[in-house]
Amino acid sequence: MSISATPTATPASTGFELHAGRGRFNAAFFWLIDPYLEWSLRRQKRRVFGGLPREVVEIGSGVGANLRYLPAGGTLVAFEPNRYMHGPLRAAARRSEVRLDLHECMAENTGLPEASVDTVISSLVLCSVQDPVAVLTEIRRILRPGGSFRFLEHVAARRGTPTHAAQRLLRRPWAWAFEGCSCQRDLESAVRAAGFASVTIRHYRVHTPLLPFNTHIAGIARA
């Protein structure tokens, strides 16, 4: 299988304006914290990303945290609008011996042909896209029948819990620092309502001092 992408959306054309300071901060932050995030999430990632095919589409590839789950010699079609992530992402692809097809493009409009993709992956991305419903619609559009969307995301905590209170209290500075990231989205409901043929989701917690980040889901949705 070979995917040919002709992106029709750019950060400017979709209304996305990359703040240079925050863009650089996020690129450096996620590069530095990658070992800790991998330690925290690897059990779920191994379950959800196990057995990935040789060619995968990823939305929000960041600095390449998920390249380690692709087979050597495979191809990652990556959509990452933060250009300051691109250098570390290319370096990680070289280390992983994965061919990188990189697009500075928003996930709401990838430009990929309809029903052309076997597997789409994401981790810690749907929290920060401008329109998660549009992104999920686009993922369904490009997936072949029987194809899979494999994801790990942090989500809103149950109401009345300390984590939920922290998410409400810190929602504005959190979103400002992390390029619009919302720690209050009900992404499980969004995925289940997106029209996939089947959805399997597991809830889990990450134990970290960053309390708004503690509540997560991981799952597989099939077209």
From TrEMBL:
The keyword Phosphoprotein does not apply. GO terms for biological process: methylation. Keywords: Methyltransferase, Transferase, Ubiquinone. One of its GO terms (molecular function) is S-adenosylmethionine-dependent methyltransferase activity. The keyword Methyltransferase applies. Residues 57-150 form the Methyltransferase type domain. Pfam families: Methyltransf_11 (PF08241). InterPro entries: Methyltransf_11, SAM-dependent_MTases_sf, Thiol_S-MT. PANTHER family: METHYLTRANSFERASE LIKE 7A, METHYLTRANSFERASE LIKE 7B. This is Ubiquinone/menaquinone biosynthesis C-methylase UbiE. It comes from Microterricola viridarii.
